[in-house]
Amino acid sequence: MLGNRSNFRAFTQAPPHLGLRHTQVSLQGSEEVSVLRVSPRDRECPLLSLLLSLRRHYSVPFVPAIPGLDGFPGLLLHSHFFRRKEPFAGLSEVVLVGGGASGVDLALLLSDAVTGHVFLSHRGAPVRGLPSNVAQVPPITRVDGPRVVFEDGSEARPEALLLCTGYRARFPFLPLGRLGLREAEHGLAPLYRHLLPPAHPTLFLLGLCQLICPFPHFHCQTLFALAVLSGRCPLPSAAEMEAEAQAELEGYLAAGGEPRHFLRLQERQWGYTDGLAQAAGSPSLPAFIREIWDAARGHRSQNVSRYRGRNYRMLGPDAWEVVEDSDQDGQAK
């Protein structure tokens, strides 16, 4: 990532304007931003007319409220702190909580380390292509000492319990009250277009959305922010922006969505990026991005053990092909 940023700075020929090795530590009022230079270590407080913040999600683990979890006598670990599979070698049973990317990846990794079974506890559709010693089980209802009890009444007695349950977004550098923001169950609110607080339209929080095609998504967010700041995209009033954000949330909940998953856009991402592009007066994302995204996700849904062997190559502005596939020859699209 550091190499990518260095290359970008060289490409844009703007060394004085793109600072590396800094971390943002606070924001006071509407303009004063405190940043900490990592090396050499000192503090600066530049005055900024705008702030684009790319906030990482993966720092504060989310721990579900499972009755009895604190009394589990074995190894209890969130996936955030997982580093190596060797400490799990020789264990007879391990339970993983969560069927998302981290849960599935750890199930694959630990399947050849344990002597018995890996239990993948989740509520979603069955995951295809898992090793034979990975058993998919319902969510956990409670933990009774060494016993883990699942919704269907079945039990396991694992030596290790791993929580692959995601993260809580946190913004320690933002004075939320002064910005008219609050931390809600569905995320930071209110945010117009998942980007900016209506009361402070020169603060843009990029990259909050999840389960998206990342860099094209960030590209559309950035072009929208630049269009707003340049005056090419006038914003509605603060009241109108807040009402629009609330209406989107209510529509999502009315359709059966869970508040905690509001920012998991998935199929909603394409309408979202199209809306940003239209408002900014910039081109929509080319169709091949969604086609490749759908192809990659579809291949993963068929066999999670093999999808990483498939890559994609552009043949032109509207054509692409599959290359280096582990189970079939390249196919042109």
UniProtKB/TrEMBL annotation:
Record EC number: 1.-.-.-
One of the Pfam families matching this protein, by short name: FMO-like
Transmembrane segments: none
Keywords: FAD, Flavoprotein, Glycoprotein, Monooxygenase, Oxidoreductase
Cofactor: FAD
Presence of keyword Glycoprotein: yes
Molecular-function GO terms, alphabetical: flavin adenine dinucleotide binding; monooxygenase activity; N,N-dimethylaniline monooxygenase activity; NADP binding
Domain of life: Eukaryota
Residue runs in coiled coils: none
Signal peptide range in chain numbering: none
Class of this enzyme: oxidoreductase
Protein family per UniProt: Belongs to the flavin monoamine oxidase family. FIG1 subfamily.
PANTHER family reported for this sequence: DIMETHYLANILINE MONOOXYGENASE
Protein name, as recorded: Flavin-containing monooxygenase
Gene source species: Anolis carolinensis (Green anole)
